[in-house]
Write the structure tokens for this entry.
Amino acid sequence: MSHTRATRPLFGWMVVGLVALAALSLLHLTQGTAGVGAADVWQWAIGRAGGQTADVVLASRLPRLAAGLLVGLALGGSGAALQSVARNPLASPDTLAINAGAYLTLAVVSAFGLHLGLLGGTGVALAGGLAAAGLAFLLTGASGDAVRLVLGGSVLTMALMSVTSALMLIFSQETQGLFAWGAGSLSQADPGAAVRATVVIGLALLALVAMGGRLDLLTLGDDQARTLGLNVVRTRLVVVVLAVLLAATAVALAGPLGFVGLCAPAIVRLSTRWLPGLHRHRWLVPSAALVGAMLVVGSDVALRSVIGAADAARIPTGVITTLVGAVFLVVLSQGMRTGRVDATAMVGHGRPPLGRLAPMVVLVAFLFVVVGGGVALLFGDGGLLMGDVWNWLQGEASGRISFMLDTRWPRVAAAVLAGMGLALAGTLTQAVTRNPLADPGLLGVSAGAGAGALTVIVGARALAVPLSVASINTFALVGALVAGGLLIALSSRGGFDPTRLVMVGLGLAAGFQALCTLLVVSTDPWNQTRAITWLGGSTYSTVASNLPPVGLLVVLVMVGVWAFRSDLDLVQLDPDTPRLLGVRHTRIRGGALLAAVLLTGAATAAIGVIGFVGLIAPHLARLMVGPDHRRQTPLAVALGGLVVLAADTLGRTVLAPAQLPVGLVCSLVGAPVFWWLLYRNRALR
């Protein structure tokens, strides 16, 4: 009797959840572009309607509803299982790159026209998801450290998505339509896909529920679970395979819907304080699946209710779930605090190897930038010789050579200046936040600048008004300032704790990236190549008028850093030393963060969104010459310019005449360096 009384509230919760989901589903069926309303759907449900009503419901609305239900169930159950295996509340198909790996394999199939055979879309997605999950666990150590897992997984996601974007650019015809689908779309071209997915998702969820007792033991810890007779390795392996199978099936059905697998289990776990016993996995897994279905269907209902079914048909539902998840991630971060990371954690102790030779190292680095710029002028869609460049400088080159160099030199200069600006922004951000993983790209400032620039680009195209470079620069700076202001406001409660700062930044980055996708697909869904090129960062359309704002900001901020170099050295140590020595801690921090935001906005306006440069260049400089800003800053600036210049040159020449955006190349190169830095950072473990 006591067991029955204990489970009665849980049964009640499940009944309430099912009723709420049924109500959402009925409301979902009444929404659409055809003139079939609630009364018509009711008549169809009781068997009194046929003809057009039946065709609309059966061919369009039911498949979309079924996709939403199945994807929500799959991602919710997958997230609950992954969080239990990793013993980490932030583990999910998103943060472990499972969705990105499954999406990449499907993009490869589309790009190369491969025959799926017996595997089918789900089998191919499962292979990619398993590979990504294994790599994510390997890189993050499968530890319970929330920030370590979400950082490593998020960077792996960025790298995999960069490969996917590169494939979509190179094989634009073969992958037409994958951009919008890649944000998570419930539109179904094959109604039978939902039927096949139902079998896979149903069996996988039943298997996880049947393993609920083993999962309960697993949460006690490996040693205690083994003492109680559990085969920990086998249990984890089976659970991970089932969780990845659920996520892969969802991706194959509707694309990668963001953050459902993170939010649904987290909401259920937060409810355990009111519903004792809900933490047991035989209740937790189906509850998370139920909440996931409500999140997906509810997001689709809300979207179509606010903007109408006709406009909502162009907007992927995953954009809405990502926005909701980004807000949830920021809210969740407010209770996180570690305070364990300092600015030199990745540098190690001892004297830097090139500290005494710092002036010579900086000079050599800038010489490499100059030489690299000259070499970059020679390569592209047509090779040139140094004599051609000399004749061009003398005004004696032919028309063809003059045209090539007139269009090529702004791209080279933009790559160098943007790299310098981002490296300088990263140097300042890491110093004043005392966070070795702080970077304008990972903390959402670059995405905010990109959203601002896309707003004016899309708005000008929609209103058929002239688009100027000044307006793009202005809106990019506004977007960066908004993102920077939100970052500071949301992460400064109780001090700039590194864990909270990173979590808020990742949430802002996801939110602004979803906003970018929303802007593109809602106004110009067929312009896939241009959208990916802009979001990937490109010097393709750079003109000379884009360069002065970035160059001027780099020079002014460099002068400011030199003037306040001693204060910055003290600020990066700890929060107490600067105050004891009379340094205006708040003013230095605020001014440095403002300068970093402005630099990021100007660089993004010039060549689009680029990540990792602001993270990698300061670290490499610090490893070589130490944390002294008099030495580190100029070297970081030179290295940043050199990194972006090299990435742009590779992107222009490797696949010429096809071109890869510089931001995608930086992501592919920057991700392995980031994981190496994460491995070195023992303080995060």
About this structure: The radius of gyration is 26 Å. DSSP finds 29 helices and no strands in the chain. The first helix runs from residue 2 to 29. Residues 2-333 form a domain with the ABC transporter involved in vitamin B12 uptake, BtuC fold (CATH 1.10.3470.10).
